[in-house]
Design goal:
The structure holds two protein chains of two kinds.
Chain A (H helix, E strand, L loop, with lengths): L2 H17 L4 H14 L7 H13 L6 H13 L3 H9 L11 H12 L5 H18 L4 H12 L1 H4 L4 H10 L3 H29 L13 H8 L3 H15 L8 H15 L5 H35 L1 H11 L4 H15 L5 H18 L4 H16 L6 H10 L3 H24 L2 H10 L3
Helix pairs in contact in A: 1-2, 2-15, 3-15, 4-7, 4-14, 4-15, 5-6, 5-7, 5-12, 6-7, 6-8, 6-11, 7-8, 7-20, 8-11, 8-20, 8-21, 10-18, 10-19, 11-19, 11-21, 11-22, 13-14, 15-18, 16-18, 17-19, 18-19, 19-21, 20-21
Chain B lengths: L1 H36 L6 H15 L1 H6 L15 H35 L13 H26 L14 H10 L3
Helix pairs in contact in B: 1-2, 1-5, 2-5, 4-5
Chain lengths: 435, 181
């Protein structure tokens, strides 16, 4: 069979298995096995499977993954979000849009200690949603900004999505982390800008300023921010001072989170063990998908499909912009059915050689992927942030999805900006690794 | 009797995976702090990697039974009754075949490491079959869980790996977070 037919067959098989409700990891294993049947030379599929996956799973880099997940699990159960709201609110009163900016800023700050976007969204929404409603803010904008800003959890390092990408694409985790900072700030600026412009256009729907506080009062409220600031400092200082490697700083994060939970009195033995088991289940779920994907990539590499596809795309002579536009559309469509991690591991084997051939940096492409995963998180029917907010606000799914729509387009804008100005992504990693 | 044993087995392996998570944390703290005070954990990075593999595979059966192994529900969630059963049995059959294939070869890998006396390339020459034990055992337990579910569903039972629809708001949030993204 020709390569075109094999790839068509594998693609159809994968779609059929996924649509039929087969577990994603198992569907990947099955496609990998079928792919191996087309490889000549009698390579034994079984031992390739067992060795590849053992080699990939017993990995020092991957060991950071459960620790970052654990950190988010612990922090979600603390009073951190309440403290952040109180600490940030007094400083944002003067901006057009006032306390709505707390959503963006609190998600940004929480994003730098959490690697998950649903956890970030839920943690901040838990307190911001009722508080903003009580004060009479426009609920639609409040919901939309929370859905959008929640996705900062995976763009601002640490990030579970970035660890998965770095492993799947075989690039340095620390470089992908560093690359996420400036785009994270860019997305925050876009969100806050939108909130400000909207509020200027609709002054009648913005509640009045809160009573002014003296500077001393403001500072006293800001003391609430100390725990989270200490935690951020602990994670990044341990890294910068060379106490910890990129993998080990996750352990420092867990230590700090446990300390915060203990300090706020929410750390019982029961809660501790619940967080351990919750983390174990998420990790196992992700790891089996990664295992399936690594087998499928290996099998595809044997067939030679990714390289053939890459040279075919190269032969089309697309402009880089057209390629990125096409990939964005593809991922937005994929995002309607798949979660972010599956989306990344399913596609890297085929897409990476393609973007490499088109001259894109793989670190840059990681940030692009994180942004399209963020879009998937805020678009129906399976956007996890939408589920979270739908339940927390009691609104129906259409209302929440419509509220999030402007923020979806702001993410599209962010993709356009980093495509035109790739230096925005590459500046920090290049500064840190000047070679 | 068999029921209690199997449920206990999945839970026990899950707890063991949890302990390996704590071990990864302690090892990394030890490595990081140890470097400052000049204490070196020999082959600490190897041990962390092995803990990671043991954790990832030993917890699989527990994860499967808790309904946290993800699948795309867009289509099959619309089906009820007979049609749904057909889809569940097909999924389980495929799962049974591939988990079985995977587990078999993981066991062979471990057995070969033992037979040929393969040792780790790192600082400590640990025989590789020891860390590989978590890998193959975890997969074998997952296979047992699949057989268990297959028999249960074919006999007319309702799948136990499907979570009931969330009852409270907290549960929905909890589950979204459990999606890991």
């Amino acid at each position: 069979m020709a390569l075109v037919e094999i790839s068509g067959l594998l693609l159809l098989l994968l779609i059929a298995l996924l649509a039929g409700g087969v577990w994603i990891a198992i569907a990947l294993l099955a496609c990998g096995w079928v792919g191996m049947q087309f490889v000549g030379g009698g390579i034994p599929a079984g031992s390739v499977l067992a060795t590849t996956i053992w080699g990939n799973a017993a990995s020092w880099t991957l060991a950071a993954l459960p620790l970052f997940i654990w950190m988010g699990e612990i922090l979600f159960r603390t009073r951190l979000s309440e403290e952040m709201f109180r600490g940030l609110a007094p400083w944002l009163n003067w901006l057009p849009g006032r306390l709505l900016h707390v959503n963006v800023l609190a998600c940004g700050i929480f994003g730098s200690v959490s690697g998950s976007s649903a956890a970030t969204c839920a943690t901040v929404a838990k307190i911001a949603l009722p508080e903003l409603k009580k004060r009479g803010y426009d609920e639609k904008l409040s919901l939309g900004s929370l859905a959008g800003a929640g996705t900062l959890g995976i763009l601002i390092p640490p990030s579970i999505t970035m660890v998965v990408y770095a492993v799947a694409a075989n690039v340095s985790i620390i470089q992908v982390f560093l690359a996420g900072f400036l785009p994270g700030l860019l997305v925050m600026a876009l969100y806050s800008g939108y909130i400000a412009v909207w509020s200027l256009l609709h002054p009648e729907r913005t509640p009045p300023r809160e009573p002014a506080m003296t500077l001393v009062e403001k500072l006293r409220e800001s003391l609430n921010l100390i725990p989270v600031m200490l935690l951020i400092a602990l994670v990044f200082l341990s890294l910068l001072l060379g106490w910890a490697t990129a993998t080990e700083c996750a352990a420092w994060g867990v230590l700090g989170s446990l300390a915060i939970a203990w300090w706020s009195g929410s750390l019982s033995w029961h809660a501790f063990w619940a967080s351990v088991m919750g983390t174990t289940r998420i990790t196992c779920m992700i790891m089996l998908i990664l295992a399936g994907a690594s087998f499928m990539s290996t099998s595809l590499a044997y067939t030679g499909i990714p390289l053939a596809l890459a040279s075919w795309v190269q032969g089309l002579n697309l402009s880089p912009y057209a390629l990125i536009a096409a990939l964005t559309v593809m991922y937005v469509i994929l995002g309607t059915a798949l979660d972010g991690i599956s989306m990344i591991v399913l596609t890297t084997a085929v897409v990476i050689p393609m973007v490499k051939a088109a001259g894109f940096d793989l670190i840059w492409f990681g940030i692009f992927l994180v942004l399209v995963v963020e879009m998937a998180e805020v678009s129906p029917p399976v956007g996890f942030n939408l589920f979270v907010l739908q339940t927390m606000s009691g609104k129906d799914s259409n209302t929440v999805a419509l509220a999030a729509l402007p923020f979806f387009f702001l993410l599209v804008a962010a993709v356009a900006i980093i495509t035109v100005f790739p230096d925005l992504v590459m500046l920090l990693p290049r500064m840190a690794f000047a070679d | 009797m068999l029921r209690t044993f199997l449920d206990g087995l999945y839970r026990f392996a899950g707890y063991l995976a949890g302990l390996f998570l704590i071990a990864i944390f302690l090892l990394m703290m030890g490595l990081s702090l140890g470097r400052e005070v000049g204490i070196n954990i020999p082959a600490g990075d190897d041990f962390a990697s092995w803990c990671m593999a043991a954790m990832a595979f030993l917890g699989l059966a527990h994860t499967f039974r808790s309904g946290e192994m993800i699948r795309v529900g867009l289509l099959i969630d619309r089906f009820r009754g007979r049609t749904r059963r057909v889809f569940e049995i097909l999924s389980l059959t495929l799962g049974l075949a591939f988990v079985g294939f995977f587990a078999w070869h993981a066991v062979r890998l471990t057995y070969d490491s033992w037979r040929f006396n393969d040792v780790a390339q790192g600082v400590l020459a640990v025989p590789l079959w020891i860390p590989q034990l978590g890998y193959s055992t975890g997969l074998v337990i997952l296979f047992i869980a699949f057989v268990d579910e297959f028999v249960h569903v074919v006999r007319g039972g309702d799948p136990r790996y499907e979570k009931p629809p969330p009852a409270s708001a907290e549960e929905v949030v909890e589950r979204a977070i459990q999606s890991g993204v």
